[in-house]
Amino acid sequence: MIIECLLRHSVGKRGIRCIHTSQRLAKEALKNSKNKSQSSQEWLRRQLNDPYVRRARYENYRARSVFKLMEMDEKYGLLSPGMIVVDCGAAPGAWTQYVVQRLKLDASEPHTTGAVIGVDIRPIQPIAGAILLSNTDFTKPLNQSKILHSLNGKSVDVVLSDMAPNASGQHDFDSMAIHALCYSALQFSLTVLRPFSGTFVTKVWEGPTTPALRNDLSVFFSEVKHLRPDACRGDSTESYILCRHFKGVKR
Ligand SMILES: C[S@@+](CC[C@H](N)C(=O)[O-])C[C@H]1O[C@@H](n2cnc3c(N)ncnc32)[C@H](O)[C@@H]1O
User: Fold this and answer.
1) Which residues of this protein are catalytic (predicted)?
2) Whole-number Å distance between alpha carbons of 86 and 162
3) pLDDT tens string 20-34
């Protein structure tokens, strides 16, 4: 487990080489893994054979997770230049990298008005064009105030939550733990999203409380879709709920 965490969050010199470093370390670790647990060995093998890991490496993204957001964006047109986006659970930073590109926040478009704020409880290495809040627990009200402060009164077009707790292996418990993060991101969204057009995307691990979560989301959004992008691992219960057309609440 420790090896897995180290590899997942290893970042190279320029901050965009996480996957490269991870692949190299995975190969070395697999060679030396005879004494490691079976699950660590399986993870290493899967990492080396995963086409999304290879593609992320080739396209200079920090994690394979980028392809989940990319697929949802390509299908539903979530992101465009000029938008304000908050990315909750942003480390190591692949979703934020993608948002920066889609919003043209890199040097290619100097006069763009949009912004992306990436937040994570872990460190996030710098990403040109993004505002990053590292070592920041999103669920803490004080930290949400910091995000509001960086927004400077502007409404948000898209709130993304790819937040995930450390899994305990107890399926129902883990599912409820991730739902707690979803509700925290939802509550924040209700205060910042642009009424009638705002979008909220959240990762879930399916469990007994997922239908209730979906019902709650449909109170606040006109369109709620449950999606499972191709890049979700076959053996995981992970999926995403895409909520569009925020109905607005009385503030
Ligand atoms: C699947 S990873 C996100 C990957 C990211 N979307 C990317 O593409 O690089 C889930 C992240 O959620 C973060 N997380 C979990 N609980 C959090 C919390 N309370 N506040 C902020 N981030 C949290 C974890 O630290 C982890 O980095």
Assistant:
1) 203 (proton acceptor)
2) 11
3) 666 666 667 666 766
